Amino acid sequence: MSTSSRRGAGRFAPSPTSDLHLGNLRTALLAWLFARADGLDFIVRLEDLDRARVAAAPGVADRQLRDLEAIGLDWDGPVVRQSERLDLYRDATAGLDGYECFCTRREIAEASSAPHAGRRPYPGTCANLSEEERRVRRRTRPPAFRVWAGGAVQQAWDRFAGTVSAEVDDFVLWRNDGAPAYNLAVVVDDMVQGVTQVTRGADLLDSAPRQAWLTERLGGRAPQYAHVGLVVNARGERLAKRDGAVTLTELEASGMDARRVFWLLCDSCGLPRAESPRALLGMLAGDAGRLTDPALAQQWVAPVPAAP
Ligand code: GLU
Q1: Which atom of ligand 1 is nearest to the CA of 47?
Q2: CB 204 less than 6 A from any atom of ligand 1
Q3: Would you say the C-alpha torsion 124, 96, 9, 80 has a positive or negative sign?
Q4: What is the CATH number of the domain that holds 132?
């Protein structure tokens, strides 16, 4: 697969299914700062493959872009929407070995002995079905398509966590509703867009080895990752809409303008309050170590009142 030959890029890749909250804005600010401080381009990509959830959230994509601009972030090149790039994902998988999978989520959960809930490694249940077994199963359930990873062990490098290593499971490339899966689309886009630095929330750290592996399988070089701390409410739960004024629109309605929201994000990162992200970058020149502070990978408790 051909990749962009630019100097490299960082990116922020929101899903336009709900307005950006303080956690998303903080991740976006850090992604922008890391990229700009390293002299990289900065790209914004709308990950809108979940058509039903996107359709149920009209206007969100435009508001996300407006909110990024309002706190002073800019980006290079056009904003890319994954829904317009299905051919790219199809072409990328043409050369990959894989197999049809008929498992339900529940079957995978029951068959897996993984200790943590959430993203469980796939136990390979459908790897060895015969053609006849597949034919029979296709009658009752459309298959997903999984890549054959062959138990590969893959390393990825994270700015805060250092080297992370994991066995790559046979993860889904195509969902059984015909849509490309997150791990496929994100890898193909990062490659095609010349992304060399991936900044996102710490909840995706365990996806890094499989994405690095797929990047290399497709002939690319894995990006450097920067998984930053999630933002939580006073009870230590992941910040959510019900927590009160958490989006820029809501914060503005409660009397806090975009610059104050930017300052709040600066405070949360232990960075000085500057006039703008651009001015902050200037203040940090020669002191880039502040952007590798391990505290940036820790949770930040947002100062919004907890829901009753
Ligand atoms: N679109 C994903 C999200 O909004 C982020 C994926 C990524 O950055 O790799 O959570």
Answers
A1: 1
A2: yes
A3: negative
A4: 3.90.800.10
**Domain presence at residue 1:** no
> From the CB of residue 32, how many other CB atoms can be counted at a distance below 10 Å?
26
Question: Residue 114 has what pLDDT?
Answer: 46
Does the annotation flag 100 for ligand binding? no
Residues 52 and 123 in one domain: no
pTM score of the predicted model: 0.93
Per-residue pLDDT tens digits for 146-200: 999 999 999 999 999 999 999 999 999 999 999 999 999 999 999 999 999 999 9
Q: Is the CB of 200 under 6 A from ligand 1?
A: yes
pLDDT in tens, 219-236: 999 999 999 999 999 999
Where does the pLDDT of residue 121 fall: very low under 50, low under 70, confident under 90, or very high at 90 and above? confident
Q: Tell whether ligand 1 has an atom less than 6 A from the beta carbon of residue 202.
A: no
d(C-alpha 218, C-alpha 121), whole Å? 21
Q: Are residues 243 and 280 in the same domain?
A: yes
278 annotated as ligand-binding:
no
Does the annotation place 225 within a ligand binding site?
A: no
CATH number at residue 70: 3.40.50.620
What's the DSSP call for residue 4? -
Give a yes or no: residue 4 inside a domain. Answer: no
- Give the residue whose CA is nearest to atom 4 of ligand 1: 14
Point out the catalytic residue in the list 7, 135, 138, 241. Answer: 241
Indicate whether 30 belongs to any domain: yes
241 is catalytic: yes
- In this structure, the number of other CB atoms found within 10 A of the CB of residue 144 comes to 23
* Nearest protein Cα to ligand 1, atom 6: 13
Q: What total of structural domains would you count in the chain?
A: 2
Mean pLDDT of 248-277: 96
Edge-to-edge strand list for the sheet holding 9-12: 80-81, 41-46, 9-12, 195-201, 224-228, 153-158, 162-167
- Asked whether residue 198 is domain-assigned, the answer is no
Read off the pLDDT band of 112 (50, 70, 90): low
Instruction: Show the domain range for 119.
Output: 90-155+162-174
Q: Which one of 12, 68, 182, 203 would you pick to mutate in the ligand 1 pocket, going by the greatest count of ligand atoms within 8 A of its CB? A: 182
pLDDT exceeds cutoff 70 at 209: yes
47 lines ligand 1 (CB under 6 A): yes
Give phi and psi for 194, each to the nearest 5: 70, 30
